[in-house]
Amino acid sequence: MESILANEMFNLKLDCTESVVPRGPTYQNVPVTNKACAWQGATLGNDYVRGKDYLKNGLSYKYSHVWRNFGILIGFLCFFIAMNLFASEYIKPLFYNDGPEAVQHFINRWFRRSATHSTTSSSSPENIKLKEDVVVKSASL
Question: Keywords of this protein's UniProt record, alphabetized (predicted)?
Answer without folding.
Answer: Membrane, Transmembrane, Transmembrane helix, Transport
